[in-house]
What does this fold into?
Amino acid sequence: MKLLLVSDIHGDLKAARSIVKRAAKVDVVIAAGDFAVMREGLSEVINILNKIKKPTVLVAGNAESPEELRAACSSWASAHVLHGDAVEIDGVEFFGLGGAVPVTPFGDWSYDLGEKAASNLLESCPEGAVLISHSPPHGHVDADESGESRGSTAVLDIIQACRPPLVVCGHIHESAEQRSAEGDSVIINAGPKGIPYSLVIE
It folds into this structure.
């Protein structure tokens, strides 16, 4: 299965148009959150991305809520917005979690979750499903400009428990386009340019 991975578009309409063009060459697009900027500009980005006809799996970032994202995608037939739930596409399960984990210092505009709330939402992740989480797992592709790890322990725990073949995340811009691994799970901080990835499910 050919995938196109993206995150943290943050209102960049040129980046959104590029993803639309490249989506024609893949089977599934995965978008790991932060389409807006501080809860503004979501509809402008989604109104471009909704030209994608291929199945597209999205989670909210901390710049928009899952409810806002679902509303913006309501007329996009091929979109699947996930938050604590899963969808199956061509025999492959995808599970998603939106929001920033742990809670950020950014204030009221940021859609954040504590580790316990995130853990509760992640409990139903099927074993072996592709995991889409706006926040990276702690210790993987999560280093900020000072080198400090900003990822989620709840996300790391579910990776260790459910062994997803692929984890797609974003949120920490300084680690965009970087890859890591936890056991057999490949972890990619996608970034706004878009990363092609060939998923092999045995």
In short: The mean pLDDT is 97.
